[in-house]
């Protein structure tokens, strides 16, 4: 933190900023112009009442400029410097607390009823893949419990204390699905909330995002989702700045996506990103085509 008078002279500077600027004697620079003492700040200091991000000796800082004194009558300015990493950690904490309250996984592995040999194999698969952090694709007919499997994996993963966010990609019109997934900035469209709004992908930060019926996603949104899977960042509607997210993605569909790839309704690169293991030292399939069928005898499972 540094306070300057109306002429730009240093009135007060704390020791942490002195160290960041590589200065040793705080008393010796009081009264001198800030930009003479630290000329590198000239290109990064924000305008009055605004924020900026700049680098000082190789470290990124979020810099805020405000009036010195509540009414600004003194004409002086106060600059605060916060390391960008600390701001990002605080942001992650706030987003996680909000998401944890709103999005919770209700089902556990014990919620999947059945003790047959087939069901034991299914539960073994759930335990095996729960510890992985890879993107997964679950195939199964409607009503066979794909979300229960996804929630069970979340509950058994390292992300269990963070949000489980689910959305049915076939239940929303295209325009609404886009804003629900990616969020929006103020003025992005008519009726957009003042200040913008983070939505489901950001709400899943540090947790799990479950995309049910991904096969119904409009092709125009598939490319945007692909970037989320590949880069783990999201760009809100009306924005040009990406937001980093730490999420695990589990998708599900009743469709045969390979046929969608063949007829052009589903992107091949999205198909492989959703169904192939990521961040592993060796190639390991995480695409497990579980086709569960309800019958009088319970679940049947066919595994290739």
Describe the protein.
The chain has two domains: 2-89, 2-Layer Sandwich (Beta-Lactamase); 103-302, P-loop containing nucleotide triphosphate hydrolases (Rossmann fold, 3-Layer(aba) Sandwich). It has helices spanning 15-21, 34-37, 84-102, 117-130, 146-155, 174-182, 200-203, 219-231, 257-263, 268-275; strands at 2-4, 10-13, 51-56, 59-67, 77-83, 136-139, 164-168, 208-212, 233-234, 243-244, 248-253, 287-288, 291-295, 298-302. α4 (117-130) packs across α5 and α8 packs across α10. It has 304 residues and is of the alpha/beta class. It is 31% helix and 21% strand. The longest helix has 19 residues, at 84-102. The strands form four sheets. Strands 2-1-5-4-3 form a five-stranded antiparallel beta sheet. Strands 7-8-11-6-12 form a five-stranded parallel beta sheet. A two-stranded antiparallel ribbon has the order 9-10. The chain is built from ten helices and 14 strands. Mean pLDDT is 78; it is low at 277-304.
